[in-house]
Amino acid sequence: MSNAQSTADVAVVGLGRVGLPLALSFADRGLRTIGVDNDPTRLGAVREKTMPFQETGAQEVLERVHASGRLELSDRVAEAANARHIVLTLGTPSFSHIEIDMRDIRSALDDLLGVLAPGHALTLRSTVAPGTTEFVAGYLAKHRGFTIGEEVFVAHAPERIAAGRFLEEIDTLPCIIGGVGPRSGEVVGELFGVFGAPIVQTTPVQAELAKIWANILRYTNFALPNLLMMDCERYEANVFEVIDLINRDYPRGGIAKPGFTAGTCLRKDFAFSEERSNAPGMLLAVSRVNESVPLFLVEGIKRRVGALNDRRVAVLGLAFKAGTDDERDSLAHKLIRLLERELADVVAHDPHVPTPTASFTEAIKDADVVVVATDHAEFREPEALAAIARQAKQDCLVVDPWNCWGAGQVFAYASELAALSTSA
Length: 424
Ligand SMILES: NC(=O)c1ccc[n+]([C@@H]2O[C@H](COP(=O)([O-])OP(=O)(O)OC[C@H]3O[C@@H](n4cnc5c(N)ncnc54)[C@H](O)[C@@H]3O)[C@@H](O)[C@H]2O)c1
Known about the structure:
By secondary structure, the chain is an alpha/beta fold. It is built from 17 helices and 15 strands. It has helices at residues 19-28, 40-47, 58-68, 103-113, 132-144, 166-169, 184-192, 204-234, 239-247, 264-274, 282-291, 293-305, 331-341, 360-364, 377-380, 382-391, 414-420, and strands at residues 8-13, 33-36, 71-74, 83-88, 94-95, 99-100, 121-124, 153-156, 175-179, 199-202, 312-316, 345-349, 369-372, 397-399, 411-413. It starts with 7 loop residues before the first strand and ends with a helix.
């Protein structure tokens, strides 16, 4: 069917947190796969059979795929055209202008323009602003004259898997495919069909909206308990008790728990919708709630312990969420910046992230304040709270918006918390 000279079945461009597990999974399913990345360190790690980041089970698959010889690596995007299917898994951040930053996608498209041939299928796996898939199709039609959906195929197949769950969910999560023109959906559906998960065909813009709005829903869902946490402080109410009152045996309850809500996806995806929103400002307000949680905590600490100048503050967790080593767009870093602006002596500990941190014991020793910024499983252990009660200052303030130890207090003194804790 194809004029594209295929020496591989699929090429994945961008071996990041989405692209690398996907490339490994294609190769593991028997597809001859080309992995492309322009970062030599990343390529070097994969060549050396070392996962460059944590992803459950991926190290084992990497070793298996290496042994199979089915994964070829390249630093040249144009080499992706050696495969019939090209999947783009490049980063799509947002500019500070509330606008998608498409520079990586544009650059890859320009590298591919001259080498694409009839028969090629280009899939956008990255999260993109509504209309981007049609833009990509239009770009190829404009510059190469292809009839999209008949000669060359373009589709959006958004990545919806949460970090850490890739291998668990790739076989089961319905795969949304929005193809341009008559046959793009069908052609790209054949590729993703190797995983055996249900394929759901739709239009490109509906696929784009479904992905972005799933993230907006999550981001908003966590903004509400965060706003409630701030309101409770104003009214001297306990947020965990109010949440229990809302949810307990109530069929229309279901409010989530407060915490640090951020990470590279949730924070930027609202911007893609805000770009052309019918309710300008609504999603920005949601963002502002989540973004103000670190300041709310710092103000709450100051109200209880006074000025933070020369006070020792332990920050537990730098990752943007529990169980990951991903620090991108983490509010823990914002918290640290705010604490440092109060001239506090900040000591951070995180058992997962690549950034070097103090040990748990070093961080909590003689601390005036301990803030749980990420609810890693290690911090939820009763022993972690017991160690804080023993080793931090006697009147140490513990700040736990996650309710890690079941004590139901955002701000409490260590001794008080240990007595209240259900897990101790
Ligand atoms: N991380 C997640 O959990 C997640 C989940 C769902 C969707 N997404 C979306 O998937 C996309 C990718 O996210 P990610 O977290 O994997 O990003 P990432 O930054 O981890 O990966 C992007 C990779 O592309 C490489 N790259 C950049 N420009 C390149 C170029 N011109 N040529 C070749 N390689 C290039 C980078 O070196 C990097 O390895 C984004 O649109 C993101 O919103 C991410």
